[in-house]
Specification:
53% of the residues lie in helices and 0% in strands. By secondary structure, it is mainly alpha-helical. The termini are far apart. Pfam families: MDMPI_N.
Length: 194
Amino acid sequence: MTETTVNSWNVLETAHEALRSAVRGVRAGDWDRPTPCAEWTVLQVLQHAAGDQLAYASAITGEPGPSENPFAPSGRLDGDPVDLVENAVLVTAKAWATVPVDASEVPTPLPQGALAPWLATGACALDAAVHAWDIAVATGQDSPLTVELARSLRPVADELVEPLRGFAYAPALAPEAGDAEVAALLRYLGRLPR
């Protein structure tokens, strides 16, 4: 296993924990709050993020993916939201564990299809981390997007985001003087860091 592959798996674990942490921090009355994802509530962002994780797992294993379209989240949930994210992250981590250490490509649900392992795990991590930030910001929590995580995810964003603008990502916002890694990544993904 290359150092890049090991690092990308570590980044994915960190992003998954960021998503878990953000979801665990949501208070009962906050699930209907608006988020940085236009037109989606906190619960819808959670459904989207969990669905995306399951889509990555399905692409790898061929097993069934999310039960609803991640890009049309219902905003209705039977059960505990924390359980939803825990299950999605667990299923996804198990799927990534099946990827051979010498794989040249890994299937993804992205329009780009199969990607190099570092980029595929990074794409999965980027999705989890950014939606963890969306949920945390919408519910008044501290940002789970650390400098180290943003620094690790920026090369992934640079490789993948442009073809997905307008579908999965908003237009990039102009950088501002003094932007550090987290703010720069968020602006590149079309989000206001504040």
